[in-house]
Structures are given as structure tokens and as C-alpha cells.
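Predict structure. Chain length: 224.
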Amino acid sequence: MFQHGQSPTDPGNCSAVVFVQWADVPGAVSATARYDAMVNGSFGPQATTRPAPFDDTYTWVHTYTVAPGQHWIQISKGWRDGPGVDDCSGMEALQHQHLGTTATVDLTVSVPDPARIVQLARTALLSKVRTAAVAKVSCPAGPGCTVKAPRSAKVRIGTTTYVLGVSVPAKLSGAKSGLVVVTVPAAVAAALHGATVTPRVSVTATNTGAAAVTKVVARAIKIP
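Prediction complete.
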């Protein structure tokens, strides 16, 4: 991307800047632009590396800002300051002669760890408020995670099917954890007094930037 612009306070002060531009890739932490440029009278391969946030907002006499959803690295620049008015468009034309027509970008991408879903061990004893935790969801450090599960789970005792409630923390902050909780309605708890049920709950947890993790948990619950 060949750019030129004037100083906001001096119309005779201008710059021409060349960038290599690419579309955003989530998780990119550094980029290396590879291109051909004139060095000591002959064209040869060159490379320029920048860490994120790259040169997305670049000030050289004039401030250059990349378009939304794009990034860029500055690979060449020049400036001129003199009497009269100049926007450095002539300098930009010269830069075309000293740079190749193609470029590539190598990205280093950091892939976040996925969330973890762990079924709790042993049989749970239904609490006085008729709830029991069946799994723990842990979110790695970072922006946070989302957690999803059906709002209910069914268990079958003999020929009768009972519906239990399911709740999960919809969002977890980075480095935090939450529980998947099953709630037994009062009528069901009365009907199943002394029984042990094992509801199956499909839980999906997604850490920002990582692949979703889905696990079916099935912890036994003793109803006193």
C-alpha cells in the first residue's frame, strides 16, 4: 500500500510511506513482511518484522491508519519539508521504482488453550435445596469463556421419565471456574425418595479464540 500525506500544520511538510497489508487473523502476535526492494543498486529480498499491534496507526509527518479488519507493516518511508505546498505524491511515485510489486506476510499465531470440563467424582448427595453439582468448567487465563448446556435432562426410573433442571454459568472470566448444577423439582424428589439417578448432560465450553469443547457428563445423584 503506497500512501502519502501532508502535515496537519504545514502544507509544505509531507511524507510518503509504503506498507504491506493483510487481513486480520485472530491470535496473531507478530508478523514478518517479505518483499523485494532496491538495495545498493539491485533488487533483493528483504524482511521486516513487527509485533502486534504492528504499524496499524503510523505517524511520520502525517498519521496513517489502516482500514478496519486489516493490519499493515511499514517497509519504506520518506519525507520532504520546504516552501510552498507539497503532498509527496511525487515521492510516492519514486518509491514504486524501488520496490517489488508483490509481498507476502508470515504470521506467528498464539492459539489459546481450550476450556476444560471435568465430571465430578463419586455419587453426589442432593442438597436441601434439591441441587447437585455434576461437573466443573474451568476457563484458562484470557478474555473469558462461554458455557452452554440444555436447560433440562431426563432420567428414566422403571417406566416413568422424570425431567430435571440444568443450569450453567453462561460466561466465565479468564482463570475462573463454574459448576454445572442439576436441580430436582420438589415433586420428583418426593417421588424418587431414596433413589439414585444419573442424568446425562451435554456441556459445551468455548474459550475465546479456541475450539469449543463438548463433553457429556453423567454423575450419579442420591436423592435422600
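Summary: The chain has two helices and 20 strands.
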